Amino acid sequence: MGKKITDKVTWVGKTDWELKSFHGDEYSTHKGSSYNAWLVRDGKNVLIDTVWGPYDKEFVTRLKEEIDLKDIDAIVMNHNENDHSGALPELMREIPDVPIYCTKKGEQILRGLYHQDWNYVTVKTGDTLDLDSCRLTFVEAPMLHWPDTMFTYMSGDNILFSNDGFGQHYATESLLESTADMDEVMREAKKYYANILTLYSPQVTRKIREILEMNLPLNMICPSHGIIWDQNPAGIVQQYLEWADAYQENQITIVYDTMWNSTRQMAQAIARGIESADPDVKVKLMNAAKDDKNDILTEIFSSKAVLVGSPTINYGISHAIAGLLEMIRGLRFKKKKAAAFGSYGWSGEGPKQIHDHLQKSGFEMVSDPLGILWNPDRDTVADCEAFGRQFAMAAAGSTAETTGRQLNGN
Ligand SMILES: Cc1cc2nc3c(=O)[nH]c(=O)nc-3n(C[C@H](O)[C@H](O)[C@H](O)COP(=O)(O)O)c2cc1C
Ligand SMILES: [Fe+2]
Ligand SMILES: [Fe+2]
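That is the input. Now the predicted structure with flavin mononucleotide docked in place:
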């Protein structure tokens, strides 16, 4: 059975407590997730979104317990990615003529994914669907996070159905802010923003301003993953504005990989240097090959400055650092400082490659890369500590000299 949210709105989604990864293995989901779909019953009955394909039969079966499928007058698809549209084919086999309200891009995506000539009704910002005592208003939100994305606002109950926006991969039974562990929820909401939305921050800011200017009364935000913001919907909106504005905390994150421990020793010495120069800054060390990549990206999102280190391997860098750098490039972090480091045995181009990659990814490089030949000795450990001190001062905005040791031959 579904879960009643208001007199008119029932949650008919799927909660998956066991989900460990999403988007293949691109996104880790330590706390499970939910696919939220909603049944709005009024003079007309409307289904908003569906669930992921593996749960399609379960979804249709449980929907039938709520409503005779013949009584569904329309389906609204806010966003047509597989996790929300996956159960559509199963549902449409039962009610093939029911209109599907979505954006023009939404229709293209549904056609591209399922190759079906369904009864598409394309909508634009400001278009409405009257249900009797309430009205649905559609607001296009392109690239939040796909070209097809839109939000649906329900008057009367004053609910914004925001699909992935304001969502979190988080499983709960109650779906409500009031009974959820909000520390966990906020951690997952931040991780979601950092990993999925950072690069669309300009659109986030613009869309939120546009919606705020509409002055709509807002009792709840119902996203497509995780909890409903039923206590303080304005709070997550405000939080999104902060996250979208080149977010940073007083944190420096050091990410490294190592085969024989030299680069790890460098990372630890750099951390000591940072700590000695700026005892107020939060320093975190993460091993790119051992720590979760999405957690690392969330820490980078929270940082004002990052150091990335890799041993030189086959005239290049490690697999884990290379993968992470590609993810960093894609997210287009803003206003963050950075530097590169690493141990090497002969050619030593690894740190320079990291440096160039971070620079191309929009980081402000505050020093030359630091390369150390083989295992660091007392002198080169001291060099690493000095590198850390200088980095901390540069990250704090100091004008102190910030050049590191030049690499031989680079
Ligand atoms: C498979 C392998 C390939 C390597 N390729 C290079 C290389 O192309 N150029 C270089 O300068 N050092 C190379 N090295 C040497 C490492 O960079 C050196 O051992 C370094 O100190 C390792 O740092 P780590 O202790 O942090 O793993 C290679 C080492 C290994 C094991
Ligand atoms: Fe999505
Ligand atoms: Fe989604």
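The longest strand covers residues 337-344.
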